[in-house]
Amino acid sequence: MTELDELLAAQRAHFAALDPLLPRAVAPPVENMITAALPDGRRVTGVIAHDRHPVGAAQRLWTTADVWELLPLVGGDSGVGMDALLRLWVDRMREIGPPGTDSTCLVSWPSRDARATKAFLDHGFSPRSVLAVRRAAPAETSAGSRPEVRRARTADMAEMVKLALAELRYSELVGAATFRDNAAALKRDGLRKQLLDGGPVWVAERDGMTLALADCLWMPVTASSWAGSRLQPGNWGYVNCVSVLPGARGNGIGRRLMDVVHTEFARGGATGTYLYYNPPNPLSSVFWPRQGYRPLWTLWEVRPATALR
Q1: How distant is the alpha carbon of residue 66 from its chain centre?
Q2: From residue 31, how far is each of 46, 92, 135 by CA, in Å?
Q3: In angstroms, how far is CA 8 from the centroid of its own chain?
Q4: pLDDT tens for each residue of 113-157
Q5: What pLDDT is recorded for position 145?
Q6: pTM of whole model > 0.85?
């Protein structure tokens, strides 16, 4: 067994002990690999991946133009090992030269790993987003006023775009999103494609007024797919965007909408549902746990990338 094999086996055992919903840890690619030595002579490794999203790309709505991502392989020592890798990453970023202001350093890591959390905080990272999961289960019935929830239609496009942009503007204040000049066009194109493909998109309305949107997807996950590095294999429902008009919040509309979403995904045989939310968001960080979601992965970021320490 090679040193990399031993690290991977130890990391798989570490993940399994941390959280029963984590998938098996996967080996990172071998390109751009860095290796750090620990005080006891052991070594940990990782890969630095760089993505540059061109002007106008949809990815720029939820991340920066330049993204440097570390894919760590630290075995079972995620405290000292992660700290050593992050120290080395600082040196590598200095060699690259100062990135622009529209940049980030990113690491995705299991949320329940407190030892790694300390290393991230010590190096200037903040938990911008989490990937949260909810196992398939019958939805509870919301109390109080019950708005009508139905599948979205092309005639709803203007209101759906309005709701999607409202969510994006709020997320820009409290999370990883950025409101770009072409945001309206990108959201409209995405929603139009969803409707043409028969995607699971719902709206909630009361007295003829559209008050909330749930834009979702079916996500088949296999062990060999990218999603298989984040979720266990199965047919998952992905909750991409949920938005309630500001004046309608706090009246149970969002919960009623998600009751329908969860019920429909369960009827379709979903393994569970997942989504991303921002821990600093005072609305999402309360709403989603109440709907049965809990963090599985945390996306740790430093923005701009020059702030990595």
Answers
A1: 17
A2: 10, 14, 35
A3: 23
A4: 999 999 999 999 999 999 999 998 765 655 555 789 999 999 999
A5: 56
A6: yes
User: At a CB cut-off of 8 Å and minimum separation 6, what does 99 contact?
Assistant: 66, 68, 93, 304, 305, 306
CA distance 229 to 109: 11
CA dist., res. 123 & res. 231, Å (int) = 27
In the chain, what are the domains?
A: 3-132+300-307 (3.40.630), 135-294 (3.40.630.30)
Pairing relationship of beta strands 148-151 and 201-206 according to DSSP bridges = antiparallel
Question: Mind giving me the DSSP string for the chain?
Answer: --HHHHHHHHHHHHHHHH-TTPPPP-PPPSTTEEEEE-TTS-EEEEEEEEEEPPTT-GGGGTS-SEEEEEEEE-TT-TTHHHHHHHHHHHHHHHHH----SSEEEEEEEETT-HHHHHHHHHTT-EEEEEEEEEE--PPPPPPS---EEEE--GGGHHHHHHHHHHHHHHHHHHSS----TTHHHHHHHHHHHHHHTT--EEEEEETTEEEEEEEEEEEEE-TTSSGGGTS-SEEEEEEEEEEE-GGGTTSSHHHHHHHHHHHHHHHTT-SEEEEEE-TT-TTHHHHHHHTT-EEEEEEEEESSGGG--
Residue 196 has pLDDT above 70, yes or no: yes
| Beta pairing class for 209-221 and 201-206 | antiparallel
Phi-psi region of 24 (alpha: psi -120 to 50; beta: other; left: phi over 0): beta
Phi, psi of 158 (to 5 degrees): -60, -45
Q: Whole-angstrom Cα distance, residue 182 to residue 278? A: 22
